[in-house]
Every structure is written in structure tokens, then in C-alpha cells.
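Tutorial handout. Part one gives the primary structure; part two gives the three-dimensional structure as C-alpha cells.
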Amino acid sequence: MNQLLAAPAQFEVTALARTESINKQIYKDLAARDALVKPANLQDVGAVATMLSGADVIISLYLPYTVIDVGLWYQVNIPLVPSGRLDDLIVLDDSVIFGGGNTKTGLIDIDDIGRYVARIISDPRTLNKMVAAFGQVTTQNEIHSIVEEVTGETIPRKYRSRKDLEETISATVEKLAQNPIDEALIMQKFILGYACSRGIRDDNNLDTAKYLRYLDAKELSPDVECTSFQDYIRQLVEGKRDAAVTQSALCIQSTLE
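Part two.
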């Protein structure tokens, strides 16, 4: 968002805000920076559909488009350490390792997303294309090792097998069939599916993206410097960064354990 707002001659930014949140300072700040802020009642499906109708018909009208998929955020891929020094800095403890922990997955610092987006949508090579934007490709085992190296602490490994994960997903799907509007079950299915996709099936990596004909943002813009996961963790430990994303992440913690 910051990168888009910094170039008003190139981009027109519209932000949708829940009706009850429209007067929050964050939206006032966006409006002051020339973003168009619109109230949206997320409980009114028809109204939201109308607001998003332009996006729905982009392809059918042959309008230019670009699809951008970014890596999982660094901020939600951090295991806690025994001393507790990271407890107040992160929203989600990502200590559970899926499978053997060696599945490659694409990550990105949330602060780097805007840099890529601004480049991608103004690059004619991305017209009617899909682009994958990763800051770093790594594994859960490597993530744990990086956090250990930076903090000097040893993190006990907690593994969850593919069999256990898939059985839990199947059980959740069965429960949802009986109660399809249960929000807790819907969230659980979503989170467990995400865990299986990135930790077991090897979906979230550059090879898979290229197989699906995604362009690589790093190849398109090699001069864009992304923060490495190690540097991000170092900044986190030094108190220069935090891992705050949204408090809603707290509700998924028990789902993964």
C-alpha cells in the first residue's frame, strides 16, 4: 500500500473498510494520503459483490490484468524460543513442523510485498500474466535453525505427520458437512489445508509456480532487494521490528498443534 500511495500519478488506491471501522485512524490516514476509502458491510453479500463486480469481469471483458501471488509472510513463520523472549513480539507461534520439515516453501517479509507489487503492475511484461513474488525459499527445519542461530537458543522440535494432518482434515470435512456454517470448523479446514499445502504437498515453491506458468518476480526485477529471513529475525531480536499482522491469527494457534 505504501508503495502504491507513493506513486499517485501511476496508481489509484481504493480501500474497503468495515462500516464499523470506517472512522478508525488507519483509514483516516489512508484518506489523507489520497486513497479512496469506501465503507463495506461484509455481512451483505450482495453489496460486497456489487463493490467487487469490476474485478469479477476483468477477464471476460478482455481488460488487462496481472495476478500476483506472494510467499507466506515471515511474520507468521516464526517458532517461539524457550526463554520466552519472542513471546510478546509475535502473534502466531509456528513451532509445529509438518512431515519431516524439509519441504521447500516460499516466504516474504510483509514490508517487501509493496515493493514488488509496485514494480509488477507497472511492468508491461506482466500484462495478462501471473507473477510469484518470494523473498526467500526455505524449509521449516531451516527456519528453526536460523532462529536458533540468531537467538543462541535450542528450540525443541515438535513434528506433525502427514497421516495425522490428513486424518484431521478428513474429520473436519465430515463435521463441516453436518454443520456447514460453523465458523470455527471453516477456519480449521482453511488453516489445516494451508499447512498441508505448504508443509506436505510442496505446493508453495517456485518450481510449482513456474510449472503453472507464473513469472518469477526476482527474475523480472533483480534489483529489488528483499530482506532475508535471517536479517528479519535479527531485527526482531534487536527490537527493530515486530511480527504483528492481525490479532485474528491467535485463533488458529490451537488448530495447528
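Part three, for discussion. The CA atoms of residues 102 and 142 lie 8 Å apart. The chain has a mean pLDDT of 88.
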